[in-house]
Write a structure and sequence with these properties.
Blueprint lengths: L1 H11 L4 H5 L4 H17 L6 H13 L5 H16 L1 H6 L3 H11 L5 H18 L6 H7 L9 H18 L1 H7 L6 H13 L12 H19 L8 H4 L17 H5 L14 H6 L3 H16 L10 H10 L5 H18 L4 H13 L6 H17 L7 H8 L4 H14 L11 H13 L5 H18 L6 H4 L4 H12 L11 H4 L34 H6 L2 H4 L8 H12 L1 H7 L4 H18 L7 H13 L7
Length: 624
């Protein structure tokens, strides 16, 4: 009998793996499981037919009715699980996840727990940029209420790892909303213990290792040219955390824009987005854009649809006389770019030349918002070479400030471009235009052009990627550029507000207060003659209104001019109007503009206070 069993086992080795795993004789099955144990240690390669077939059959193997065969099945499963991280490194992440998710439906809790251990380790080590998180997020909620405590605890641990990678906003609908309150509290407590500690993978796949080696070789060449490394530069080149857009369900917002949402005082009906944007009142247009920002920015992923009307509306806003409306339209486009991606690509290209032209604005709100939205459009909707014509037009803008701000934007975007673009498309598209600005008549433009070339060189791997234009520079410019690259000056510019880069204005010697230009008719001219009989103290206090504009290095005239750049000439005109309703509207517009400044308002607080003290002034008679 023993000889017959031995012969049967030997003959069965020639059978396909699925037939051996499902064979009616337990010794055949046991021998097959033992072979898997040996293969796991010898090959660690899921492409092997036996390994692939056992991965699909393991959940049945561990339930083998024969105790001896079942023991071997557990040994095979353990050997298989121990090598899962190695399989991921060999670009088999999809297969690993597929097999581990099959184990979620196993009747044995220890099999499920083992699969969870594998996923926890693999996701932690490689990140969701390598491990496909979407199928895990879909199946994980099925284990939240598992009868086994160990399984529930490991499910929470895996949830924490995933949330630390994909973010709470995405996890809210995919995980948290499907948990019981007690489980959610436990996960929140675990996240609280690691809050502020970024989770970054410690392993790379073979392809990533090869790419890292190529970058290291490029850096070696760059080091010889004096290019300084940035901390974490290598890690930044690899998509380690993944993108919440990939896991979120698309949300439809066009219907919400069509529905009335804004109540208008004195009106029986509410306004929808189109009605708001057609209104003559800037506050209605602002509220419509705020609603669009809220809807587009409130979800990582928007459902595709016909956004042509939204595009036309935002395009029209670029010519709006109110800077708050312009700034909000810019931010709305940025939110749409991030949430629609290629669905907003055409619209982004249509809006781009208008956005770049607005870089000429002196208003800090508009410029700040442009520097927030344009990088999102260049990241998610188009690559720089696709918009070369519009960008080069902006680089030759007649207003120097527009040229500076355009290059500031390029400095922030170049480091995010794909490396292969620096080998031709980007060079051909922009190097000539930027190099031309190195000899611009405006100092700020010249300095920014050198910074822009240095950023290009650093992002492209060294001075060799700008060699065609580098040789055409004079010795002084070459030295400037080499110093900028050598000390890391080619990094992305961190300041976008023009006020942060502007040179301090020359100090004005204090003498007698200069008379500010009259901005509204003197009310005193229409008062009865008796109004002129004021006390000496009142007369002495009158010049104080002009002195409220004194301070720092700016004259009253300069401060009034600065007010127009911050709030717009139309708003400042209303502040000084004779009609109280216009003054009230002007104050409202200025208040909204101050709110839009956010944290940046602190630096301008004293200036704004002095401005309000003068116009409309603390003696304003209208209580509103």
């Amino acid at each position: 009998m023993a000889d017959d069993d031995e012969k049967l086992v030997k003959e069965a080795k020639s059978l396909p793996w699925p037939d051996r795993f499902a064979h009616k004789h337990w010794k055949v099955r046991s021998e097959a499981y033992q072979d898997i144990v040996e293969k796991s240690g010898r090959y660690a390669n899921l492409s092997d037919p036996g390994m692939k077939d056992f991965g699909s059959f393991a959940h049945k193997a561990v339930l083998d009715t024969n105790p001896n065969a079942q023991t071997k099945a557990f040994e095979a499963l353990q050997a298989l699980l121990q090598n899962q991280a190695d399989f991921v490194e060999l670009e088999a992440a999809d297969v690993v996840v597929e097999n581990m998710l099959k184990a979620f439906s196993n009747k044995l809790a220890k099999v499920i727990a083992a699969a969870l251990d594998v996923l926890i380790e693999a996701v932690t080590q490689f990140g969701v940029g390598v491990m496909p998180a979407k199928p895990i997020l879909k199946e994980l909620p099925s284990l939240f209420d598992n009868k086994d405590k160990n399984v529930r605890e490991k499910t929470k641990d895996l949830s924490v790892v995933l949330v630390r990678y994909i973010g709470r906003n995405v996890a809210e609908g995919l995980l948290f909303d499907k948990m019981r309150d007690t489980a959610r509290k436990d996960v929140e407590d675990l996240l609280g213990k690691v809050e502020g500690e970024p989770l970054r993978p410690g392993r790379l796949t073979r392809k990533q290792q090869q790419a890292a080696a190529e970058r290291a070789a490029t850096r070696t060449d760059a080091d010889e040219e004096g290019v300084a490394d940035e901390p974490g530069e290598e890690a930044a080149q690899v998509d380690l955390a993944g993108d919440p857009y990939d896991y979120a369900e698309p949300v439809e917002i066009l219907g919400a824009l069509d529905k009335p949402f804004l109540s208008i005082e004195g009106e029986d009906k509410k306004f929808n987005f189109s009605t708001c944007m057609a209104s003559a009142k800037w506050t209605h247009r602002r509220d419509g854009l705020k609603k669009l920002q809220e809807l587009a920015g409130g979800t990582p992923k928007l459902a595709q649809g016909d956004y042509s009307e939204v595009q036309r509306t935002l395009k029209k806003c670029m010519a709006d006389s109110n800077v708050v409306v312009v700034g909000d339209a810019v931010l709305a486009s940025g939110n749409l770019a991030k949430s629609l991606r290629q669905g907003w690509s055409h619209s982004s290209k249509v809006l781009l030349p208008l956005f770049l032209d607005r870089f000429k604005d002196k208003n800090i709100i508009v410029v700040k918002n442009l520097h927030e939205a344009l990088p999102l459009m260049a990241t998610y909707c188009f690559e720089l070479p696709e918009a070369a014509e519009d960008i080069n037009t902006a680089l030759s803008h007649k207003v120097p400030k527009a040229r500076v701000e355009t290059m500031t934007w390029l400095c922030n975007v170049f480091p995010t471009c794909r490396p292969e673009l620096f080998k031709g498309p980007l060079q051909k598209a922009f190097l000539a235009s930027i190099t031309k600005l190195v000899d611009d008549a405006t100092p700020d433009v010249r300095n920014k052009a050198v910074e822009c070339l240095a950023t290009f060189a650093k992002a492209g791997g060294g001075l060799n990627c700008i060699s065609k234009v580098f040789d055409s520079l004079d010795d002084k410019k070459k030295k400037q550029l080499e110093e900028a690259v050598g000390v890391g000056g080619g990094g992305a510019s961190t300041s976008s507000a023009p006020a942060a880069r502007a040179a301090p204005a020359p100090a004005v010697a204090k003498s007698s207060p200069a008379k500010a230009p009259a901005t509204r008719p003197k009310a005193a001219a229409t008062k009865p003659k008796a109004a002129a009989t004021k006390s000496a103290a009142s007369k002495a206090a009158a010049p104080k209104e002009e002195e409220n504009l004194e301070g720092g290095a700016l004259s009253p005239e300069e401060i009034l001019a600065k007010a127009e750049t911050m709030f717009g000439a139309e708003t400042c005109g209303k502040l000084g109007a004779a009609e109280w309703k216009l003054r009230l509207e002007g104050v409202g517009e200025m208040t909204e503009a101050v709110k839009e400044m956010g944290e940046g308002v602190g630096a301008e607080a004293e200036f704004i206070t002095r401005l309000v003290a003068h116009t409309p002034g603390f003696k304003e008679t209208n209580f509103q």
